[in-house]
Amino acid sequence: MQLALSLGARGLGNTWPNPAVGCVIVRDDRIVGRGWTQPGGRPHAEVVALSQAGAAAKGATAYVTLEPCSHHGKSPPCADALIAAGIARVVVALTDPDPRVDGGGLAGLRHAGIDVVTGVCEDAARRSHSGFLSRVQQGRPMLSQKLASSFDGRIATGAGESQWITGPDARRVVHGMRARHDAVLIGGATARADDPELTVRGQGAVRQPVRVVLSRGLDLPVESRLVRNLDHAQLWLVHGHTVGDAKVQSWEALGARCLPVLGTSTGLDVLAVMKALAEQGLTRVFSESGGTLTASLLRAGLVDELIGFSAGLVIGADGRPSIGDMSLKRLADAPRFDLQESRVIGGDVMHRWVRRAG
Ligand code: AOF
Ligand code: ZN
């Protein structure tokens, strides 16, 4: 199952709206098939592993990180394919909460006389599938928030200079993280200040994450780097309902997709934004937002993971903070995170934190 999990993880960022599943088929203590969900979400992992195993699948055990599907969707059900191939035993990490499956795959396998075991490496599978689980069960994608700041938590000087605070090694790691998410998100202020490209570079061939920019008034410069790569990296602009049709149409003519959501006095309703992104199929979003948007996301309880890169320079209180005003009075109301990982990367330190439940 651990091998199946690591194979499945190869698909992270590439399979949305589907989960990134892994599958290993073992016969007489030999691996005869390995598969993972393919880019765009199909073929499913089991289909890939079964086709590799061929006739050797007969009497074999299949290890799958998510319950095999039972619905007639865009491809025939994997549970049926496992049955037809003569698999004798199926070991599953986690039940698929998709209402079209939700136990139906396990029931079908058992009904066909297959020995089914569930809950193997379930916690690891829950972590690996957290984006898909969040989309299906909460109607929003999982959100990782990246912060790259000075020792004292600043992301720019008071005059706005921000390039570069962390070193090239940390920035390379960030590109790898972008690649394992479905989308990269920033606010209009960061788009205007940094003019970022937000693509994945230096990681070999990958499906480029969708670039999502939040701008209530859709007031972004047309001559930005974001519009230069529209042929291979999508650009979605989330804006308020009050933006005029002409503005929307001019961005769509450039190749961007515009998504209207509820606005607030200061920006956009960030929960509505996340729901809109999940409706479009996104499961894993990597936020590289600046201080104001980051504070809104945290305040709304939408940040599942915090990834902080801290550099050995000090900017001081007149610099721009990585997290803006949260208007917190009581520590009890502060969002709490638990440390998952800490690593030295080049001259910087990376800390990865996961939101504490409850
Ligand atoms: C599997 N193996 O590798 C994946 C599964 O739109 P479809 O027909 O491709 O079905 C998508 C659903 O299938 C998705 O919502 C999830 O429930 C399941 N994904 N299932 O057996 C896989 N990726
Ligand atoms: Zn399937």
TrEMBL record:
Pathway: Cofactor biosynthesis; riboflavin biosynthesis; 5-amino-6-(D-ribitylamino)uracil from GTP: step 2/4; Cofactor biosynthesis; riboflavin biosynthesis; 5-amino-6-(D-ribitylamino)uracil from GTP: step 3/4
Residue span, CMP/dCMP-type deaminase domain: 1-116
Cofactor(s) named in the record: Zn(2+)
GO molecular function per UniProt: 5-amino-6-(5-phosphoribosylamino)uracil reductase activity; diaminohydroxyphosphoribosylaminopyrimidine deaminase activity; NADP binding; zinc ion binding
Cofactor note: Binds 1 zinc ion.
Catalytic reactions on record: 5-amino-6-(5-phospho-D-ribitylamino)uracil + NADP(+) = 5-amino-6-(5-phospho-D-ribosylamino)uracil + NADPH + H(+); 2,5-diamino-6-hydroxy-4-(5-phosphoribosylamino)-pyrimidine + H2O + H(+) = 5-amino-6-(5-phospho-D-ribosylamino)uracil + NH4(+)
Residue spans crossing the bilayer: none
Binding of NADP(+), residues: 148, 164, 190, 194, 290-296
Superkingdom of origin organism: Bacteria
Active site: 46
Xref: Pfam families: dCMP_cyt_deam_1 (PF00383), RibD_C (PF01872)
Documented EC number(s): 3.5.4.26, 1.1.1.193
Keyword rRNA-binding: no
Binding-site list for Zn(2+): 44, 69, 78
Ligand binding (substrate): 162, 178, 198, 201, 288
Gene3D superfamilies associated with the record: Cytidine Deaminase, domain 2, Dihydrofolate Reductase, subunit A
UniProt GO BP: riboflavin biosynthetic process
Keywords, in A-Z order: Hydrolase, Metal-binding, Multifunctional enzyme, NADP, Oxidoreductase, Riboflavin biosynthesis, Zinc
UniProt function note: Converts 2,5-diamino-6-(ribosylamino)-4(3h)-pyrimidinone 5'-phosphate into 5-amino-6-(ribosylamino)-2,4(1h,3h)-pyrimidinedione 5'-phosphate.
Homology family: In the C-terminal section; belongs to the HTP reductase family.
Protein name per its UniProtKB record: Riboflavin biosynthesis protein RibD
Species of origin: Qingshengfaniella alkalisoli
Gene giving rise to this polypeptide: ribD
